[in-house]
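Title: Comparing notes on inverse folding

I've been comparing how different people in this forum approach sequence design from structure. To keep things fair, I'm posting one structure and asking everyone to reply with a full sequence. Here's the target:
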């Protein structure tokens, strides 16, 4: 069969690598892809938001299955476009992708269906938000309602910071229309855990847990990023946590969406906070996390095509989802200066040392081919992933592997998974 993957980052590279392992797949296309993806798939110069061009390409090339990796096209309704054209596509429709597309919607959904989450208020007026903050307990969290590249969350320690945050999101429009509405949320403390799941509208199957490092610098300092590294499984995701979440969060979320007339088919990413009062939902995403996909998918035993198709056909209950009994750690190699400003176009050296290296992966995020050479083309450049029998071993392997790759401006956190 022919498969089209839509997106251009490390997540899409991880998806393509999993798809390539399926004996059912003869040909993989990726739109628009990147230099690393181009080694296992044919990259097509169509942007992820060019829905009509994507549909036309899928028709003309008789694509059997399209997999949407990114949040923007999902929230924009690309799945609806494919379905209207009679094409098979994996991902939630627009009315279900709102689970990620609007934080205000997801918070209201959780409140309505008694799904554990932080206390909150939604505001579409900066004046009303500031009035509320005059008496609110600090620290407090401000979230842009819409998509903001994973960066639209401000943790404010003081009332002055919170007021400035409202100005940044709602008046200065740092994240554009994403800040037209904001969620003001109580500050929770505890360990954060990411849990990805496959959903077919009614059945949910949980993948192995993972843990992301969002801040740019060591010790969780610096600005929020799209993710500087991750590990799987999370030692903090215990059997008790799993049992609680299965009882009160996972199926409850799927049932809530169905009850709202928004049946969800695709990936639900649960961002969890393990508080003293039990696990609570920080956020939902409507697609694979990045870089979480880069440690979860390499550990999955199943043929990913079987799972995608079971979700589309409403037969996920027939799938026995299995993961290897090991661990994986991903260290992101970024361009120094990310996420604010950084230079591009530097040649990346050492990638050939990973050819045929079992248990090691280099997932490309911001790369491109330039005159036959692979060069940097973004803030997050590569995700270096390694497996090991234990998290400590996987971490040691991953950091050893980062030494094999070099480019000008190379930057990484040195403490991914350090507490393990």
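Reply #1:
Here's my take.
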């Amino acid at each position: 069969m022919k498969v089209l993957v839509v997106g251009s980052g490390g997540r899409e590279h991880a998806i393509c690598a999993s798809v390539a392992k399926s004996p059912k797949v003869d040909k993989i296309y990726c739109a628009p892809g990147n230099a690393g993806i181009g080694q296992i798939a044919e990259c097509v110069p169509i942007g992820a938001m060019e829905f009509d061009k994507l549909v036309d390409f899928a028709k003309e090339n008789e694509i059997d299955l399209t997999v949407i990796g990114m949040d923007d096209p999902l929230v924009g309704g690309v799945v609806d476009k494919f379905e209207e054209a009679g094409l098979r596509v994996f991902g939630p429709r627009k009315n279900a992708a709102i689970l990620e597309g609007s934080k205000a919607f997801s918070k209201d959904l959780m409140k309505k269906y008694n799904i554990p989450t932080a206390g909150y208020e939604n505001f579409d007026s900066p004046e009303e938000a500031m009035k509320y903050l005059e008496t609110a307990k600090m620290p407090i969290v401000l979230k842009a309602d819409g998509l903001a590249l994973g960066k639209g969350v401000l943790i404010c320690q003081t009332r002055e910071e919170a007021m400035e945050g409202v100005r940044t999101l709602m008046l200065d429009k740092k994240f554009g229309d994403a800040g037209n509405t904001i969620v003001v949320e109580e500050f929770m403390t505890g360990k954060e855990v990411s849990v990805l799941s496959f959903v077919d509208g009614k059945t949910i199957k949980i993948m192995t847990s993972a843990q992301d490092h969002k801040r740019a610098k060591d010790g969780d300092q610096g600005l929020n990023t799209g993710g500087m590294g991750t590990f799987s499984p999370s030692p903090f995701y215990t059997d008790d946590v799993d049992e609680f979440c299965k009882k009160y969060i996972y199926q409850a979320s799927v049932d809530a969406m169905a009850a709202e007339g928004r049946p969800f088919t695709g990936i639900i990413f649960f961002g969890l906070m393990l508080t003293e009062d039990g696990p609570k939902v920080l956020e939902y995403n409507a697609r694979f996390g990045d870089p979480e996909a880069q440690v979860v998918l390499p550990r999955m035993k199943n043929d990913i095509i079987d799972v995608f198709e079971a979700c589309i056909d409403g037969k996920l209950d027939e799938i026995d989802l299995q993961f290897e009994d090991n661990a994986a750690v991903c260290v992101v190699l970024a361009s120094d200066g990310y996420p604010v400003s950084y230079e591009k176009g530097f040649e990346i050296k050492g990638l050939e040392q990973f050819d045929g290296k079992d248990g090691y992966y280099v997932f490309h995020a911001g790369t491109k081919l330039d005159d036959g050479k692979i060069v940097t083309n973004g803030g997050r450049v590569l995700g270096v992933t390694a497996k090991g029998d234990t998290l400590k071993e996987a971490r040691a392997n991953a950091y050893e592997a980062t030494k094999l790759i070099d480019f000008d401006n190379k930057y990484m956190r040195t403490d991914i998974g350090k507490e393990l």
